[in-house]
Amino acid sequence: MAAATGDPGLSKLQFAPFSSALDVGFWHELTQRKLNEYRLDEAPKDIKGYYYNGDSAGLPARLTLEFSAFDMSAPTPAHCCPAIGTLFNTNTLEAFKAADKKLLLEQAADEIWEAVKSGAALENPVLLNKFLLLTFADLKKYHFYYWFCFPALCLPESLPLIQGPVGLDQRFSPKQIQALERAYDDLCQTEGVPALPYFLIKYDENVVLVSLLKHYGDFFQDQRTKITIGVYDPCNLAQHPGWPLRNLLVLAAHRWSSSFQSVEVLCFRDRTMQGVRDIAHSIVFEVKLPEMAFSPDCPKAVGWEKNQKGGMGPRMVNLSECMDPKRLAESSVDLNLKLMCWRLVPTLDLDKVVSVKCLLLGAGTLGCNVARTLMGWGVRHITFVDNANISYSNPVRQPLYEFEDCLAGGKPKALAAAERLQKIFPGVHARGFNMSIPMPGHPVNFSSVTLEQARKDVEHLEQLIESHDVVFLLMDTRESRWLPAVIAASKRKLVINAALGFDTFVVMRHGLKKPKQQGAGDLCPGHLVAPADLLGSSLFANIPGYKLGCYFCNDVVAPGDSTRDRTLDQQCTVSRPGLAMIAGALAVELMVSVLQHPDGGYAIASSSDDRMNEPPTSLGLVPHQKKNLKYHERRSIA
Amino acid sequence: MAAATGDPGLSKLQFAPFSSALDVGFWHELTQRKLNEYRLDEAPKDIKGYYYNGDSAGLPARLTLEFSAFDMSAPTPAHCCPAIGTLFNTNTLEAFKAADKKLLLEQAADEIWEAVKSGAALENPVLLNKFLLLTFADLKKYHFYYWFCFPALCLPESLPLIQGPVGLDQRFSPKQIQALERAYDDLCQTEGVPALPYFLIKYDENVVLVSLLKHYGDFFQDQRTKITIGVYDPCNLAQHPGWPLRNLLVLAAHRWSSSFQSVEVLCFRDRTMQGVRDIAHSIVFEVKLPEMAFSPDCPKAVGWEKNQKGGMGPRMVNLSECMDPKRLAESSVDLNLKLMCWRLVPTLDLDKVVSVKCLLLGAGTLGCNVARTLMGWGVRHITFVDNANISYSNPVRQPLYEFEDCLAGGKPKALAAAERLQKIFPGVHARGFNMSIPMPGHPVNFSSVTLEQARKDVEHLEQLIESHDVVFLLMDTRESRWLPAVIAASKRKLVINAALGFDTFVVMRHGLKKPKQQGAGDLCPGHLVAPADLLGSSLFANIPGYKLGCYFCNDVVAPGDSTRDRTLDQQCTVSRPGLAMIAGALAVELMVSVLQHPDGGYAIASSSDDRMNEPPTSLGLVPHQKKNLKYHERRSIA
User: Which part of the chain is the THIF-type NAD/FAD binding fold domain (chains A, B) (predicted)?
Assistant: First the structure.
């Protein structure tokens, strides 16, 4: 209870303050706007809340903000009154703490005072229902710090109660009550509003009239010493009005205290219980109107909400506890990505990355690391193809597997990798196919069974490539890359290829065939560049994406079976353990850079000479390949 | 049963072949030798097996190879006869399949034939007990392919049985049996061997004499048409001798067929059941000695073992199924590492890497990736320090965490990271400490509780640094790196520092203070280089490890609280997702390179100019730092 000070002879009128009711939807929408719209902008924002006067007894008077709070044109819910607020959302907890709350309150009070003095509040009483909301959203933890203020101008003295408060049914006859109800409803309907926050009342035994504040001149002209005003009252207490009355009384004192000695206040409370409407529990009381002339200066104001402990301090809500954890994970993953766009790369088109469908051929050392990096970029659609099972040496180098996956002969890699991605981030759409990729040089046994299987494998591979946007070649043999490279070329899919040596690697994008209308039917299927095109271009010119070669373009022999006759160290990809992480990460970063280029896979290959020019994408150069192959660099990756 | 062909009038003598009994210990030892010693060497290796003549009835005659098979000086087990073999371990399954088994058998037969002709076999009868073992060890899958051969020279014709076989108790009186037993034991003792594979026997009703083959001249001089020879017989069958008799009969025919018409064979079988020794179940038979003179050419030989299906083919044993999975995981992890030493980096000192104890300060994006790379290098001792809990945005970028780890406020990162390493590889010794690192600029509240806690944290940090070899600085603030850098410098521990920007990073080693005896007391604790040292050296000279700076060496202001007043995008390390993997991997590769340098942390910093010279370690250059900071390279990591 906030007490107005004053005359000790009569009991003083005290007001029940608002309790802020900030819905989860509000915080969710704030999060979205912060991430996508406000970013680092700390400028005040208009928001909108509402309050209700039909609550059951016992509930506190609440000012509610929902997800709709940010849409100033959103309709106010039925039977509710709007309140217009200002959001001060700070970038840091320090700024939140350091905010000058006294100043903010004074500024808001000034605006109310101006509206009172100018008469604007009579025209538009919602101007009396201002609120402030100071927030800091810790979106890493989903902790929301906030401090709510409903600025109330203070009268120069306390208001002695002349009469009441009593229930409306003790003052009005049932007939009068019914007449008030009808008059109020009619006015709302005429005005086209769900509720009237403030209104004027005139009544005798037979008639009850209500009117808008702005009509006070005509309405009150036959009144003598006392006027009656109505306030839409969110409070339930029998002895106390709610907070919205405060600024109305200041208005009344300012406007009418020279003409009237007292004001009768009807705190209009309007609830429907079990289908029966009831306004009879509204309360009525009479207070002396302070006669004194106000100084032109804005009166003192109060209104910062107390916190749960009853002290002056902010509140914090931890939404991580009540949000669906999977939903929470999705928002959190998005967060890190969106933060890139705030300051560092404002032009980054994240949607192009997040929505890309990636097919990973190979779920070994490279496949696992590529998948991990894709997850970091927020890619939601990842499909693995592999035909191996997880062996005991895998988990320490293949970061999607664990010891348990190796038991009983080992789980199929493709399936286990997809499962693991779901465990890491339930929002991902991951699938795995335990299948072989037909390879040149690896003869198919021409029994009907194996031949049929090989046919099915080719068909399935074609379908998979067709239904994805980017194909990653991450296998451990050269020749297994051939068929997917050919199929992807024919379907004009972006191919990213990564291959490891011991301390060397290559990461490259394959060239992309020209679109069909440009006539590209004369390209050989494995080699994407028409010889004539190559001859026509200087070796040193920047090469457009459709002239870039593929992994096999420099081959002088056809790919053959490289798995035959391999010694143990040739069977395993013996490589410096850090290399797969580097190559895997670079492969994904290369894909992201290509996707950011307006020409996508047709982007001209950037060379290191281009470094003096403006980079072609917000993420920099889009080279043909990134490799570490030079002899003198061979052993120098560290 | 292998049948000798010949005279259809009498029943023919048939021999029970050996069954190879290759113990798990044998394969384990082969694995070790292959990895550590043979590597790519396919040269034949001497190995040793043994056989036993005391088995219970029903067991096949086995030639057993245990872990000791590779140690030619290892003692033969009690009551067993040795067999000397040659191991042909191929590098590939193709070489295994392509091995010329006919040629290998012929070569072994030749050696036996030479030993027979020269008389060497008389001096050393073990020369008759040769065997071959052709193997291919697929150490990725723990599948061992093998083909065993016990070369037996063939007599030009089959051996007709003149008498028997009968049990020894049907031929000898109990007194004779006892006398044989004693004579055999005495001879073994005189010779100092656990058993005699072949021996000569002479007996009458009262006396039984045995002698060595080489004494045949004296021993047989009073014999007329028949001699008796004893063979230590691994076979249990009542009607058939075991395989070792075959080469002895060839020797007998070659040596003695001109003097004697037949030979009586005593297949000496010597078992102890329930404490009672029994040789009475030995068998005795007489065969005609082929009279013909042998040609000087080596006779035809047989001996390749049939496989489980009864055909001529190799066997395979899948040891992954019967090995302890955790042990298997350890061997498998070692395998990939050891393969590096086979061909690519023979001088790599893996022990220096595997045994290093690493302290990871920070278990976030960098910490997780560093730990993963350390695991790939086989590092077994990894300790995490972090004070944060896992949040929902972490798992997609921090590859030791999953969605489940985020629930209920999130597990402490340090503990969860250590747990995850154990799940990846049970052989790792991983620990985690959920603690804060005191930081300059972050004032400690001087209440006794928090002050005491800060003191404890410093003490604990000191202990941790003391008990590790390498300290990784992987935190997300600059100032948290300060105290560990100072402590590690004072304790002369190698410090590897990694820090990320958006598309920039730095990975560096801190300089290492000179050892105490060289007088380094005048260095300031945070800055490792004495100013005089710096002034004395040219900027372009190669800088020795003790003159290298630390992360703070170029600071012009003291580190302060960089976490205050940070906006959301400054709180999170907003970085290209691939970057942490690259920097984490490079940090570990840098550590490995430093460890490989003979001077360790005192190694002169390699610069790119050094690339024309021989690299200082088997893994290449050992730079001071690896960074990606230049403006024009800023956005070009892809």
Answer: 338-599
> Are A56 and A18 spatial neighbours (Cβ–Cβ below 8 Å)?
no
Touching check for B320 and chain A: CB below 8 Å? yes
**Sign for the pseudo-dihedral over CA of B589, B590, B591, B597:** positive
Per-domain residue ranges of chain B: 2-156+302-326, 161-296, 349-556+566-633
Listing DSSP states for B67-90 in one string gives GGGG-TTSPPPTTEEEEEEEEEEE
Q: What is the CATH number of domain A161-301?
A: 3.40.140.100
User: Between chains, do B638 and A579 touch, taking CB under 8 Å as contact?
Assistant: no
Q: Which residues of chain A have pLDDT under 50?
A: 1-7, 519-532, 534-538, 629-638
CB nearest to A395's CB, from B395, B425, B636: B425
Q: Kindly state whether B278 is in contact with chain A, defined as any CB-CB distance less than 8 angstroms.
A: no
Q: Domain B2-156+302-326 falls in which CATH fold?
A: Cytidine Deaminase; domain 2 (3.40.140)
CB burial of B612-629 (b: ≥16 within 10 Å; e: otherwise) equals: eeebbbbbbbbbbbbbbe
Pick B567's closest partner by Cβ from A92, A321, A325.
Answer: A92
Residue B290 CA to residue B294 CA, distance in Å, equals 10
Helix (H, G, I), strand (E, B) or coil at A183: helix
- Within the 330-359 window of chain A, which residues sit less than 8 Å (CB to CB) from chain B? 331-333, 335-336, 339-340, 342-345
Give residue-wise pLDDT tens across range A313-342. Answer: 999 988 877 667 787 788 788 877 887 777
For A12-154+302-326, give the CATH class. Answer: alpha beta
Picking from B94, B339, B576, the nearest residue to A569 by CB comes out as B339
Q: For B349-556+566-633, which CATH superfamily applies? A: NAD(P)-binding Rossmann-like Domain (3.40.50.720)
* pLDDT tens digits along B286-305: 998 876 566 678 889 999 99
State whether residue B593 sits within 8 Å of chain A by CB. Answer: yes
CATH topology of domain A329-521+573-632: Rossmann fold (3.40.50)
- Rounded to whole angstroms, the Cα distance separating A272 from B259 reads 131
* A161-301 matches A329-521+573-632 in fold: no
Chain A residues touching B592 at Cβ < 8 A: 576, 638
Over residues B534-567, the pLDDT tens digits come to 444 445 557 888 888 888 877 766 666 666 555 5
Least confident of A176-180, A459-463, B235-239, B574-578: B574-578
